[in-house]
Amino acid sequence: MNKTIFEITNMDCPSEENLIRMKLDGISSIANLDFDIPNRKLIVFHSGEIDQIEKAIIELNLGGKKISTAQTDRTEFKENENQKNLLWSVLAINFVFFLIEMTTGIISKSMGLVADSLDMLADSFVYGISLFAVGGTLIRKKLIAKLAGYFQITLALIGFVEVLRRFLGDEKLPDFSTMIIVSIFALIANGICLYILQKSKSKEEAHMKASMIFTSNDVIINLGVIIAGLLVNWLSSSKPDLIIGTIVFVLVIQGAFRILKLSK
Known about the structure:
This protein is an alpha+beta fold. The protein folds into two domains: 2-71, 2-Layer Sandwich (Alpha-Beta Plaits); 83-261, no CATH class. It has helices at residues 14-24, 51-59, 83-108, 111-132, 138-168, 176-199, 210-214, 217-235, 239-261; strands at 2-8, 30-36, 41-46, 64-71. Helix 1 runs parallel beside helix 4, helix 3 (83-108) packs antiparallel against helix 4 and helix 5 (138-168) runs antiparallel to helix 9. The longest helix is centred in the middle third of the chain and has 31 residues, at 138-168. The radius of gyration is 19 Å and the shape is elongated. It starts with a strand and ends with a helix.
């Protein structure tokens, strides 16, 4: 048995972990995957050559790079029986906040909240693909990934058009207080998702480091919307909200392309 360590520089939260798991699903030489999200490391236990695994990881464009390969005597791996239930939990949290942020974003006229809601939906897609594709055929997994990716891109493009319309038009200021309050709750929700998934890995990881939370793209986006809300109030301008919305829509599209790569 061989043990290969990868550094995944863009692995910020469990959604990237699930993308990697789906990408490597079906490679028969893999015995186990051990993820260390705080340190952005992936340990692959495998037999035979690493070339196919390395190529699949690089194709995801998550900054994957092989660090080392060595032999190991480890042959037994304990699977977490609660993993599926945990995935359902984080899927539910992300989807509920997608609905909350989309609704409040439309009501408060905040493109930042609308964009962040799509980021929540993107994470829901990743967890959903992981769950619904388990035990299914490769064709089924690819079909689900393709539908999710194109749907995500379509929503983001609609968002871009709306941002452009608001830049050129004379729109009322978004409700900055709604932006801040909802984003704070979304921040808490992302922290909970990260916590329960990391807690499931090992007892040592149950007590999260602050860096584990605050290196997450999701959390950075939440903080960005909060700052945009403060600037909207301070400057009496909708531009900060539109700028953060544009940035998040770009991130959503990048995530969609990663999902589409799973369908190839």
